[in-house]
Amino acid sequence: MSHTPHAPGLPTAVAHLDHTAVYASNRRLSAEFLAAVLGLEVGAPFGPFLPVDLGNGVTLDYYEKTDEPIQPQHYAFLVPEERFDGMIDRLEAIGVTYYADPNHTRPGRVNDLFGGRGAYFDDPDGHNMEIMTRPYARP
């Protein structure tokens, strides 16, 4: 078995998420929506993708899919406590309802899971987005 030396600046973990594609019926609308809520910017197009850089080395690469319905997915974002209220304010400003639970039964409320705060909301294609200030405690 050959061993390739570790190149400086590359991750040493077993796996590090670099990017994921997010299907959207309108990639610009969806990317700009998420970027606006999170207080980020949409990057320059990269082939068929429109990236939103999350600031931690991971991008969500929006890909326009118009040949069939979008299958909603769940995306959760661990956000700084001091930025959470601004995100809620931006959701309210653009008229998007947020919920304290993933089933969207407690509108206009945030949760207090694991000693932090969190909320769920739909993006333009129905992806169930989550912002949270504390990671889930896993067994």
Automatic annotation (TrEMBL):
Residues 16-134 form the VOC domain. SUPFAM superfamilies: Glyoxalase/Bleomycin resistance protein/Dihydroxybiphenyl dioxygenase (SSF54593). Coiled coil: none annotated. Pfam families: Glyoxalase. This is VOC family protein. It comes from Streptomyces tibetensis.
